[in-house]
Amino acid sequence: MLLDFSEHSKRYPTLIIEENQGFYLIETSINVIINQMLEENNVTNKQLIDHFCECLGLKHTYPILTAHSSFIALPKFNRNKCNHSWINVAFLNHLPSLKNRKYTDFMLKENQFICLPISEKYVNNKLDDLNKLISYFNGEWLQLCQILAILFKDAQLYNGERVTIKDCLNQWSLKNKPKLDD
Fold it and tell me: Is 163 helix (H, G, I), strand (E, B) or coil?
């Protein structure tokens, strides 16, 4: 979970909650972390996700898909000052808060919860958006694979003589064998 902490600390604007590492503050902003994740991603990029979300009619803050994780945005607590906070859905265990319907409890570890002012309906809507995006992405990926299979049917990359790796290594070892002095 990436929580915007900029209103509480200028030096450490991001509070990170990880399953194994616990809670810690870092000097990097949430936006920088998100942009780094998207740059390092080898499956999708922001423009592709934006395009898919527009095709699906998703509004507002889109989910983030990377090769390793999927994030949904949590609402801003102060619309003018803070960044969106994000939660990795792989570790998302949530339930409506016993306090009232405007809060949701997120389970961090065994019997450890964090209560945030987010309705369960909001979380469920964001999860629905993410599932729509993943389904759409998978459908497009399958279509691409089918097209590539048709294009490359009976295609050969090389028509010359083929040498097995074993033969190649044997030839190399013969060439590099030390000569014995008579």
Answer: coil
